[in-house]
Amino acid sequence: MSTSVQTPARDEEQASLLRRVLLPTIFILLGVIGLMYPIVATQWNNSQQAKVAEQYESDVAGADPHTLNEQVEKARLYNDEKAGGPILDPWLSRISEDNTEYQEYLAQLSGLRAMSQVAIPSIDSRLPVYHGTRENTLQHGLGHLYGTSLPVGGPGSHAVITGHTGLTNATLWDNLSKVVVGDAVYVSTFGEQMKYEVDKIDVVLPEDVDSLRAVPGEDRLTLITCTPYGVNTHRLLVHAHRVPMDPADTGALTDSGTIFQWWMLILLIPALLGAWRLIWWINKERRENSNA
């Protein structure tokens, strides 16, 4: 019976191999994970937001039409009563949520997973809309700007919907800057489906809210996000007016969804190259070690 004895030279050779293989492998894997995380996180959150939008429409389809209509009419009455109130920038100003007026606001269009949903086919976007513009709200979808009309349409109404740009883990309204005059925007609120046509695009300072006020006799919608991308010193305002909705337009509220972003390709290519290089290098080291 014989036993193999590890010589100091053999131990050093194995330790050297471990240093050559293990440490570089760890660093490369960390790099690949770092490159892949924003892509995976963004696509995951995008899918969750799309699921909420789909479930919202399912909830509406399964709800009592009379109850839905009551909610919409109640929201329109609320709009009439609250018209002319103060409008504040959604990112600079915060409203105390424990006051009676804000609680009354939260009671409007309640009972479903979201207040509404907004679809913009030209940028393949369909997102749920929630009450208010708290940071936690805007991390998960769009927010309705408190102080503006609830998104149920009607003469003299002007709903303002806000959304983030530049998050590392969600697309949201990264592509809102690609919207052009003439594009369609669809809003679905408790069974009320509305179509708006973009007629003006502005870039303003956060304090400039004059264009967000309601215009007597007009049915308007404005979409807001921060700009420039990653700097966020100004606000991009996409203004639209109500137009008739054709039966063929109803598909826009179910077909739109988030898309693969161009920046994901920039991260995905080096991540895949890094993974391929790691596999090639490990196989090379294994062959050299077996031949030694």
Automatic annotation (TrEMBL):
InterPro entries listed in its UniProt record: Sortase, Sortase_C, Sortase_dom-sf
Stretches of the chain forming a coiled coil according to its record: none
A GO term for molecular function: hydrolase activity
The enzyme's E.C. designation: 3.4.22.70
Pfam families the record matches: Sortase (PF04203)
UniProt keyword list: Hydrolase, Membrane, Transmembrane, Transmembrane helix
Superkingdom: Bacteria
Residue stretches spanning the membrane: 21-40, 262-282
Record's keyword annotation contains Membrane: yes
Catalytic residues as annotated in Swiss-Prot or TrEMBL: H164 (proton donor/acceptor), C226 (acyl-thioester intermediate)
Name by which UniProt lists this protein: Sortase A
